[in-house]
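Before relying on records like the one below, remember that each one covers exactly one chain. Contacts with other chains, cofactors or solvent are not represented anywhere in the record.
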Amino acid sequence: MVLISILMAAYKAEATIPAAIASVLEQQHQNWELIIASDCGADYLALCRANGIDDPRLRMVATPAVGSGPSAARNRALAMARGDYLSILDADDTWLPEKLSALLPLARESGLACDNTRAVHPNGKIIGTAYPVSATPRDIDALTMMNSGVPHFPLLRRDLAGAGYRPDLRFAEDVVFNMEVIARAGAMTLLPQPLTHYIQRPDSATNAPRSWQRAEAAYGQILAMLTDGRLAIPAHQETAIKCAFAEKRRLNLAYGAAIEAGTAGSFQEFLASRRLSGD
């Protein structure tokens, strides 16, 4: 069986990480290692043991400094990874048991595969999925991934990760990482079944009241990096990708205005409401 290294950045995740880890332990594909990158100084392995979880496949590494950010944390985990394939699970999200077993055959064939991320409330109420639910895999490009407005958590062949995440990005770093991986792979195979629960917690990095300001700064960084040619871009999509990031920035500013006006909750709810209204 193929060894899969799962990278998990964890910052003040004591309340949520047990459920995230439990969803890995429940995977049908069992040849994995989970590398937790503690970005807050917490000993998450001790927390696991206190919750009755003691598995040799769980490993932990600390970031150089508290609050180094998700890019630095995942890169620390990546440096320890021993697997032929990589996957990413955030410490406040969960997987369905068939996530790895369903994606592995697709990733073996194309090098890169993802499922149809489902955004949900902490109580389990569904907000929506990145794409219509289907059983038929298909290839998607970077633009399709970006325009969905929902994070993707792929399973990828290790060499496609390159140098990892851009350490100077502390927001939308996953979008850039996925874009660059798609540029190396040529496309990403999408299995349009929801196997990842992207849980919309009000205090998360993407939903905190000032998160839109952090996103605005990040989109400015990304557009500058694109202009300077510092990012890997899929062939013939440079202009379209710049426009897509500019549109993300515009949408984020609209979300910020709604937050300031007290008319928006999570970004995914905001996005879903705009889709329903046809905006």
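The chain has two domains: 4-198, 211-277.
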